[in-house]
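Entry 14: structure prediction run for Ubiquitin-activating enzyme E1 C-terminal domain-containing protein. Input pasted below.
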Amino acid sequence: MVGYPFIKSVLIPYSKLEKGKTGINQNCDKCHCVLCFRRNMDPDVGITRSPAHSSSNSTAFSVSALNNVLVSGMHGLGVEIAKNLIIAGVKNLTLHDYNKVELWDFSGSFVFHEEDLGINRAVVCRPKLQEINESVKISVLTSTLVKEDLKDFKVVVFTDLLLEKAMEFDDYCHEQNPPIAFILSDVRGLYGRIFCDFGPDFEFLDANAEGKAYRAMISNVSTAPDAIKVDCHVVEGQDVKFQQGDEVVFSNGKRMIGLHDGKPKKVMGVDLPSKFYIRNDPTNPPLDGTEVVVTKVTRKLLKFKTLRTFLNDRLSNPNIKITIYPLLHQALDTFRANLGRFPNAGSKEDAEKIIALVTDLNNEWPNDMRATVDAELLRHFTFGARAVLSPVAAVIGGLTAQQVLNTCSGNFHPMFQCQHFNLLRPSNLDPNDLKPINSRYDAQVSVFGAKIQKKLSAANVLIVGCGSISCEYLKNLTSMGVCCDKLGKLTVTDDALVRESDPNRHLMFRDQNIGQAKSVVAVAAARSINPNLRAEALQERLCPETESVFDYEFWKKIDIVLTTSSITNSVYVGERCFYFGNALLTSELAGPKIFSRTIIPHITNHFLVSLKYPLRVNDIEACVWLAERGLNELIVAAAVELPKFISDPNGYITDLRHESQAFKTFEMVLENLDYILNKTFEDCVRWARCKFEIHFVNKFSANDPTDMSFIKSASILRAWLLGIDIPEWAKFVDNNKFTEAMEGVEYSNNVKAVIEPNTPARMQKLIGELINNSSRLPRSYRVTPFNDAFVQSYGEQKLIFSVSLVNLLARKHGLPEIHPEEFKFIRRTNKVPEVSPAIASGLACLQLYQFVGGKRNLNDYSNVLVSLDSSCMKISTPVGASIIGTVANTALTPWDKWTMWGDPTVGDLIAFLENDDLRVIKVTFGCHCIYLSSIRAHNQILETKLLDLMRYLDNFQLPVRSRYKLLVTCEDNSRARADIPVYIYTSLW
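Run finished. Output tokens:
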């Protein structure tokens, strides 16, 4: 194997196993090792395939059609494009560059090291990029290109080409038969551009022509000598109609060789609207229609213009109002053509030349069509025009690579035809601070300045998890120089090991790392990119059970947290960041869509508010997402909370009793304990019926298969998790028995109206019942974990529950119901394109520049939504932090909190706050009033310890908390009032 380009000391070889001793039924024909078997097995559909198809993207079956791609210009942007295409599995990739590696290149690329200085960039990149996917054939060109050199390529991508040469190459590509797809992609500091020309008549199969893909599930496939007959499910609420001449694409087949190739098949005839014929190939093996989906596609024609024509047409079109960004790139090309170099960073003279060129270009337009010339923006652009920064390259490189993939796949609409990007705009820069300092960060210094570079190096950053996005985070941060000073530190935590499928999807992992700790491997790889990185790898999951590791001392050192949104972990991480006042950058991948959110203390709303982005339940995909969340709330919550309570009842109650969700959580735990001790399977059936009533009031019918599926699957899952015996009649799904179990149960028209108010007496009652029930549990009792073993045993019930919940939600919102196979298809096809992690990481790291740079204005930050299926990007300003009050002429937000240490008295607390010119009116702890200034007797308790007072008021003996929260009502000199939280950290534990 080729040596790993990043890790040099921690690799453990993954030994080959002898054939027949792998524990796997199949092996490759070459060396019979697990590695080769993994690369040739599709983990989702279980069919062998080419290593080039190892992508998780639903369009991967057609990537091999990209049999020859050229990427020219191997600085940071070119490397990002090539890396994404290699992960996607293109067949042949040619890297071109005639420039040599310079120190300036280090801020934009993760493949260059000091020993590479002076060597051709393409030559350096080839062996290091080859490691990502050995099945891709990578070639190198180092000579100057002429247009005839492009004739053998299907797609050519140029990342550093002057305008005149770009027009010459594009004219040549456009005239070929068939045309060569031409893409021009630039990164100039914080500005980017992508231009696409896929030919005068670019036809592609648009499965989303009407805004939503039309798909049908195949129920039966039968073959005849000259035809294949396909029967589809008639899904209620959908108009399933196939007509002669329609084109269809088959996917997800287990034995659909010959059909499952991504190519459209023409319908020869129809029996019914849901039954059609296609031509048969007698050489194909027998077909199996299990889990096969047929998609009706529409041919769409786009007429691309050449770059030359595109620019000329803009000048002649009276309906176009020019923007400043195209003029920036044209002026820079003119500057480079005239002087043979880029503008110098921090050079006021060069900036004035660019401003003059832009002004001249702008004056060529009529007065009412001219752009607004912003001199400050032009200077920023000029100073950093030569720089290619890693986060910007990640975003533009990911979008560019997706356009390359769009040339052969019909899933996503290609970019038509040119887009400009202004991803970030610094302000108030000192030109003298932008000049090179002879370091690997010179390109970044030319954009942000040496002062911000020092702040980046001294930052303390936490990355939660080592998934595909987190690996891209690491790549960007090391190139940016984050945490590379003795004052800075990068912490990466993940408790998982590298799995066999990870090297295909994660940039930092290789086959040699299988079985090793993800965090250790990722940090070692990051250090190999930048030896100056100061990083620590932790093998802990960030969760309530590890708060002794991630304690206050840990969190107070963290400046910013980077993570990815997931139902299971993101809420807890968001709560921790809100509690300790840490900035949070998070990204979420939802199929072809990418969400990037920015949470900044005191400036934006905290994560739990920001997570509720507008989600309209107007399609079945959204119902699938909500069903996944419902599964967690109704079933998985018991498997999460019960073990924590059972292992340490007193500590669990102590930690949660004063939290906002204490009543809800304690009720859920108590309910489950009651079922474990006293209930039978019939009680689980009645529990499921109650949950149905809460969510779908008065809609239940025992004769409705969907309603009964919900009851059956929910009760079986719950019983299995809690260790309740499941009778044989439930396993064989006896409807009469289930109906009998629900008889005699009365349901209120408004279940939520009978909820008991949350009072201190009720809290004491809940705590007493919890402790009493916990003492009755057998010592050997364990809650069944919701893990892979559970899925193997009860995966079918989990599927039935999810599908029934999806269909009940669909009914609620007036949507058509789906078949179980369609549910699985939606989950499969909603997978993430290969370029998404890179784009998501780049967007987050761009916001890190702003935070470390000290930006305090809400408009300096952005939330971003990227839709790869429509090639568009929407940038919005985050929602500002809400105002909860005003004291001392200062607006308070939910982020504001006061902190005391030790074992203070009531008087100490009052004196502590009066130092801030605040007058204490009232102090409360949970439901108890500790101090009220209007009551004279309360002045007698000023010498009483707060901890002793609270333990007396709560009237129970539990271990002393390490922290507790008080709510203090204060007023300032203007008598403006506000409730402020005060956190007391005691050392008496």
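Notes: The chain has six domains: 52-201+303-314+386-448, 204-302, 315-383, 454-617+832-876, 621-814, 885-985. Will compare against the previous run tomorrow.
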